[in-house]
Amino acid sequence: MLYTAFIFGLISSFHCIGMCGPIAMMLPVDRTNQTKKAIQIITYHLGRLMAYATIGFGFGLLGKGFFMAGFQQNLSIFIGVAMIIVVLTPEKIFAKYNFSKPVFRIISKIKTALGSQFKNKSYKSLFTIGLLNGFLPCGMVYVALFGAIAMQSASMGGLYMILFGLGTVPMMSSIVYINSFLTVPMRNRIQKVIPYVAVIIGCLFILRGLGLGIPYISPSNMSLFVQSDPNCH
After folding, report:
1. In this predicted model, what pLDDT tens digit does every residue of 147-160 receive, in sequence order?
2. pTM of the entire structure?
3. What is the DSSP string of 74-130?
4. Nearest-CA neighbor of 197 among 78, 37, 87?
């Protein structure tokens, strides 16, 4: 299921243009030296990937708890359904419930720290901008975290989020070079594709949990369960 992380990251990066695009455009990179500029952009992305890996590690650890308890199949089905529900639910419904309110102060501090880093052009500042950017609330990241939980281990959860982050790198890098890379109508059309991709990924997680014996997509029930003796063929 790791490949779904990169694909989802690639598609959701078009959503990131609207949310994190302004941050990428404001990066204090060298506009005269293209080699240095490229290294600075990579440094920024490394910060984002570090944030995603850290979050994915934590959620993967949570998923491991379910795995060890033998709930992995039901968890995979639940996460697939949750992905589909979250994506198909209109944003105005979520807006009625401020889920980020309990951590509003933390988010506010992150934004304040983020703003102060733009005054410095050092690699440390660029890495910090990416790191803080990765911890900002994002609907697409929330959906990806469902996948990290289903990975059943902390390391795989971290890897899942790294691959998700890598999927966003091409588009997020492009807008640093070309601010008008996408027109608004084109961006809106691409935004409409994102829910379909998320639904497909959600269905893959559901199939994975059903244990239908389909190689690579829906392993059999026998191979999904934790056993005292190995199941070898």
Report:
1. 888 887 889 999 99
2. 0.69
3. HHHHHHHHHHHHHHHS-HHHHHTS-TTGGGHHHHHHHHHHHHHHTT--SHHHHHHHH
4. 87
